[in-house]
Amino acid sequence: MKLLEYEAKSIFLRQTIPVPKFNFFQRDELAEGIEYLKELGGKAVLKTQVLTGGRGKAGGIKFVDKSNIREIWNELKGLEINGESNQGFLLEEPLDIKKELYLGITIDLDSRMPLFIASAAGGMDVEEHFKGETDQVCRRNLLPSEEFRIYHALDMGIAMGLEGKELTQAAALMLRLYQVFQDYDCELVEINPLVITTEGQIFAADAKMVINDDALFRQQGVLQSIVQVGSKGTPLEEEAKQNDIHFVELGGNVAALSIGAGLNMTLLDMIKLSGGEPANFIDTKGGAKPETIEKMTEIVLKKIEQDPKIRCMLITISLSATQLKSLVNGIVRGIEKRGCSVPILAVIHATDASLREMDLDTAEIEFAEVGIKNFPQLKEMFAYCSQLLKTE
């Protein structure tokens, strides 16, 4: 479950993580927003509330004052970003920024432990910083048997190039952020940017939280007091949920559809190793029925339609019992229905009973007829994918 920025910041406040003074308003509460603007001294930052990334670059964050708040509010209230409608506004005091940093905690799929990432560079292009110079990017796995202590946080702050008051403030905030990660059963908690002001104060200028769906029953009391907006997934994620499909938008440049035990996470890891970033995670909760596979295919194709960053789509199938024919038919119908604007690459592995109704040669022919390029092994597919990503 993804939280909107104002929801995550409400939780941060409970944990005494400093955030700029803010309030949340529904899209039709312009009058209330104008009144709150006066409390902020007549100048503020107006932020659309969406779950998708890229809000700043899409024009979803604007500085406002009493002369332009009406015009900008009305301009942004109907804004769509990556196919997602604006769910309201966060109106927030502006900060005099001296420095932007990054803090994030997620689950490291390799070690299966929480991973704390801290960077001396934050803001809209932080991903590019991670790919380039990494001297001031600190990564620390958090061992279940080891408490995250202040000296660990200080070490990370020093690695980020901080010192003095900035270092001690950042270290204290790191401890609180990890407490949020633990207490709220998070899969991700992120501050980007973490701002140091010209007066030397530190603030979480933005906040992102993703709570593990399987742990929501433990968080109902807190969430009911914070969450004001109904749907907590992107439109595609909600559509998938209604069809017993687990779908997560990740924002990368390679779309993925994988069917077979254990393949989903492996595919995402291999996408990264080939120089790409996963655009999505998808899995089925309701078995490999043809109609479910067709719907999964459609959802991934819709993601491709909405996101111009995506360069290709990868399909991997590994079966020993589930009928290959039903999967192939579902994928083919989904592609025939929606089409695809990027290359689709596939690897099919099937043995034993799964080949009773369709053999591998027939499956590859069916795929080729809808424009899918088949490969005998994952190695060859990812080599081709890597070449695609290197071309303009």
Radius of gyration (CA) equals 23 Å
Query: How far apart are the termini?
Result: 35 Å
Counting DSSP E segments of at least 2 residues, the number of strands comes to 19
Q: Which regions are unreliable across 5 or more consecutive residues at pLDDT < 50?
A: none
Protein name: Acetate--CoA ligase family protein
Cofactor: Mg(2+)
Domain ATP-grasp: 9-221
Family: Belongs to the succinate/malate CoA ligase beta subunit family.
Give the helix/strand layout.
Blueprint: E1 2-3, H1 5-14, E2 22-25, H2 30-39, E3 43-48, E4 61-65, H3 69-76, E5 80-81, E6 84-85, E7 89-92, E8 97-108, E9 113-119, H4 126-131, E10 137-141, H5 150-159, H6 164-183, E11 186-197, E12 202-204, E13 208-211, H7 220-226, H8 235-242, E14 245-249, E15 254-259, H9 263-273, E16 280-284, H10 290-306, E17 312-319, H11 324-338, E18 344-350, H12 360-369, E19 372-375, H13 378-390
Parallel strand pairs: 15-17, 17-18, 18-19
Antiparallel strand pairs: 1-13, 2-7, 3-4, 3-7, 5-6, 8-9, 8-11, 9-10, 11-12, 11-13, 14-16
Helix pairs in contact: 5-6, 10-11, 11-12
Written overview of the protein:
It contains 13 helices and 19 strands. By secondary structure, it is α+β, with helices and mostly antiparallel strands. The strands form 5 sheets. Strands 1, 8, 9, 10, 11, 12 and 13 form a 7-stranded antiparallel β-sheet that branches. A 4-stranded antiparallel β-sheet has the order 2-7-3-4, covered by helices on one side. The longest helix is centred in the middle third of the chain and has 20 residues. The protein is globular, with a radius of gyration of 23 Å. It starts with a strand and ends with a helix. The model has no long low-confidence stretch (mean pLDDT 89).
